[in-house]
């Protein structure tokens, strides 16, 4: 095994709000980082050399797992249907479909006329488009309402700066239309199919403007510009075709601007001016809007209505009242029905309501499961499509007639190598946090795995932005579970598994609850026989990586290993740099350490990079992406360097940077398995090489 890289130290003193800190590894941030996002070859040579040295060291430490990684990839690949196809979705005269050719990395988008599946037409073969690119991702695809155009947004660096391609579908040799550059990935056709509305990214990578382009032209008209750098902009069209909706907001305030579908060149009008703390989303039905909102103190959200001719806040009226503990997360609207998804105690259900007020619900009888809308294009339909799955049950696509409640199974996820749900068991447990809160935990294991502390445990957590980690089916985790591991999800505060207050309980000044919740879940699981101290591997991505950084400092003794993927671990420095894409929008989430001394002190008290100190750390694998605009590559690089300098154990601290990808890692359904296999191999290796205390 080679020796780890020794990062040079160039101390930099930072004084802020009367407080002083040292950052000896600030040099790892390339001053030209904004251009590096667009062209990774511009990375400063000394930084590139250091990252490659870190990659070589990680490869050396884990070289003994190379064969294991190959086995894991083969297992995971064997659970994927080689020629998978998703249910075709109707829209007027066509069915639109997405599928994979045998062994293909990327999907193919197709359509066929109703009743003529043999007349399939290829709209986009992503495999062909990705040819020649080290990284390739498609954010959005869309056909125009008149079915004559198809557009898609591509990213070839991983920087999430997209180019939109538009083509006519009249014939296979129709010339390409002018492309749109510097897009956030969000776009929508106008209901009359004559215009494309798209979202522009500013020099800091923030979605800040909406432009309108007439199809066939290469000039754009500014429709909306967001003046607040803390608000991000999006655009969509209502299913009814009545409106184009420009949305803008941050994590706790939103605002919508309306463009009539029959007059897409009209100036947008504000539906309801922003009020700090008020969030709302609009869905059109008939002559009114359905509104999903937290207005009037409805912290778990409610559904209201307002005339589309007078959408102002003064005209909103309750339709589905607020019920504490029933968090309404999403809504869909058709001409004769609405449906909403609600969450109670970390499980979900879907409720359908007709125009007369009659309701019925979809609610499976399992300890832990997930229900989600499966989308659709049509407005005048009685068909609701949804997806059901659980940790033991592969995904099922269903179509329900909302009038008769007749339910059709459209497709069930196939596991070619075999999967018997009866061999597995899912538990929903509860861990008591230090302040008495009960934290839900979902556990997956085989029926024959002993619950006596002898089996290792992989514990996953996130806990930010109100994003819930739902208990879904994963073919990847089965490679650990089938080797006698337990896999668990800690539904910690900062997510919304128990409602919006669950999010607020792990946000801002309450952020430390997220970390203590995760530790409480780990100790509660070991007390119950699921794993044991020193035989747990913790796993978190992005803001979940923040959790990994915190618990590494708080309770390193609990873990054999910690995996931190694109981890947000340099919180104080990042939240103090207002040029970074996500910093101003995230001040409501963490606090603003540039202006608020209390926020500075709070962030400094838990920030992973700031809290590194001489202590015995477990084995750590940090993974970053060079072109990541969300968690920049230098965060894990700096963290690993400081950890290694302070580590008092003989356990290795490793960094792997994907030099050809961003926040989401490798693209391609099989290439991405290599990163999953690396994480699982590290977990197995970490437990096997940890000496019991």
From TrEMBL:
Native organism taxonomy:
Bacteria, Pseudomonadati, Pseudomonadota, Alphaproteobacteria, Acetobacterales
Annotated Pfam families:
Peptidase_S9, Peptidase_S9_N
> What residue stretches are annotated with the Peptidase S9 prolyl oligopeptidase catalytic domain?
473-686
Residue ranges annotated for the Peptidase S9A N-terminal domain, each copy included: 5-413
Hydrolase: is it a keyword of this entry? Answer: yes
Q: Which InterPro entries match?
A: AB_hydrolase_fold, Pept_S9A_N, Peptidase_S9_cat, Peptidase_S9A, Serine_Peptidase_S9A
The keyword Protease belongs to this UniProt entry's keyword annotation: yes
- Keyword terms, alphabetized: Hydrolase, Protease, Serine protease
What is the source species?
Answer: Komagataeibacter oboediens
Q: What is the protein's name according to its record?
A: S9 family peptidase
Matches recorded under PANTHER family: PROLYL ENDOPEPTIDASE-LIKE, PROTEASE FAMILY S9A OLIGOPEPTIDASE
Family assignment from sequence similarity: Belongs to the peptidase S9A family.
């Amino acid at each position: 095994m080679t020796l780890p890289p020794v990062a040079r130290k160039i101390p930099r003193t930072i004084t802020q709000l009367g407080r002083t800190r040292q950052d000896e590894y600030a040099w790892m941030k390339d001053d030209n980082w904004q251009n590096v996002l667009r062209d990774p070859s511009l990375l400063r040579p000394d930084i590139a050399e250091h990252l490659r040295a870190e990659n070589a060291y990680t490869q050396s430490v884990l070289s003994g797992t190379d064969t294991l990684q190959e086995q894991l990839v083969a297992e995971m690949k064997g659970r994927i249907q080689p020629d998978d196809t998703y249910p075709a979705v109707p829209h007027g005269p066509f069915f639109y479909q997405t599928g994979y050719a045998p062994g293909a990395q990327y999907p193919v988008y197709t359509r066929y006329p109703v009743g003529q599946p043999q007349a399939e037409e290829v709209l986009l073969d992503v495999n062909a488009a990705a040819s020649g690119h080290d990284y390739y991702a498609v954010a959005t695809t869309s056909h125009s309402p008149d079915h004559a155009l198809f557009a898609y947004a591509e990213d070839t660096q991983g920087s999430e700066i997209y180019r939109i391609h538009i083509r006519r579908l009249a014939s296979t040799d129709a010339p390409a239309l002018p492309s749109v550059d510097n897009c956030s990935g969000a776009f929508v056709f106008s209901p009359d199919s004559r215009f494309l509305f798209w979202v522009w990214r500013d020099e800091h990578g923030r979605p800040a403007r909406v432009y309108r382009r007439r199809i066939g032209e290469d000039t754009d008209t500014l429709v909306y510009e967001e003046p607040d750098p803390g608000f991000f902009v999006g655009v969509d069209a209502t299913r009814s075709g009545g409106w184009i909706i420009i949305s803008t907001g941050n994590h706790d305030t939103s605002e919508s601007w309306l463009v009539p579908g029959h007059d897409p060149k009209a100036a947008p009008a504000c539906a309801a001016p922003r009020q700090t703390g008020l969030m709302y989303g609009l869905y059109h039905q008939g002559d009114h809007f359905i509104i999903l909102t937290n207005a009037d103190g409805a912290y778990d959200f409610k559904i209201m209505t307002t005339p589309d001719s007078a959408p102002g806040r003064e005209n909103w009226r309750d339709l589905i009242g607020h019920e504490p503990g029933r968090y309404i997360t999403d809504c869909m609207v058709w001409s004769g029905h609405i449906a909403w998804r609600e969450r109670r105690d970390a499980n979900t259900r879907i409720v359908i309501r007709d125009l007369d007020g009659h309701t019925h619900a979809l609610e499976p009888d399992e300890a832990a499961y997930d229900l989600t809308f499966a989308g659709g294009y049509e407005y005048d339909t009685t068909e609701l499509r949804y997806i059901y799955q659980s940790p033991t049950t592969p995904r099922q696509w269903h179509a329900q007639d909302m009038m008769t409640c007749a339910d059709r199974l459209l497709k069930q996820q196939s596991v070619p190598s075999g999967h018997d749900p009866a061999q597995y068991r899912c538990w929903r447990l509860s861990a008591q946090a230090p302040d008495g809160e009960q934290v839900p935990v979902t556990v997956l294991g085989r029926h024959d795995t002993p619950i006596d502390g002898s089996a290792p445990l992989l514990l996953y957590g996130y806990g930010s932005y109100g994003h819930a980690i739902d208990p879904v089916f994963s073919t990847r985790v089965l490679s650990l579970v089938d080797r006698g591991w337990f896999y668990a999800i800690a539904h910690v505060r900062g997510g919304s598994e128990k409602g919006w207050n669950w999010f607020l309980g792990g946000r801002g000044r309450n952020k430390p609850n997220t970390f203590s919740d995760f530790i409480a879940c780990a100790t509660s699981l070991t007390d119950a026989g699921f794993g044991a101290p020193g035989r747990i591997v913790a796993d978190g991505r992005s803001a979940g990586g923040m959790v990994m950084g915190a618990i590494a400092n708080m309770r390193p003794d609990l873990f054999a290993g910690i995996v931190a993927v694109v981890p947000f671990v340099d919180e104080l420095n990042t939240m103090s740099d207002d040029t970074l894409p996500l910093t101003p929008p995230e001040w409501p989430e963490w606090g603003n350490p540039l202006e608020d001394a209390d926020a500075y002190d709070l962030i400094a008290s838990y920030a992973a990079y700031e809290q590194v100190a001489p202590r015995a750390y477990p084995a750590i694998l940090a993974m970053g992406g060079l072109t990541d605009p969300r968690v920049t590559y230098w965060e894990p690089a700096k963290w690993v360097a400081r950890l290694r300098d302070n580590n008092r154990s003989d356990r290795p601290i490793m960094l792997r940077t994907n030099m050809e990808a961003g926040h989401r890692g490798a693209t391609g359904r099989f290439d991405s398995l290599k990163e999953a296999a690396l994480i699982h191999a590290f977990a197995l290796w970490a437990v096997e090489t940890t000496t019991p205390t």
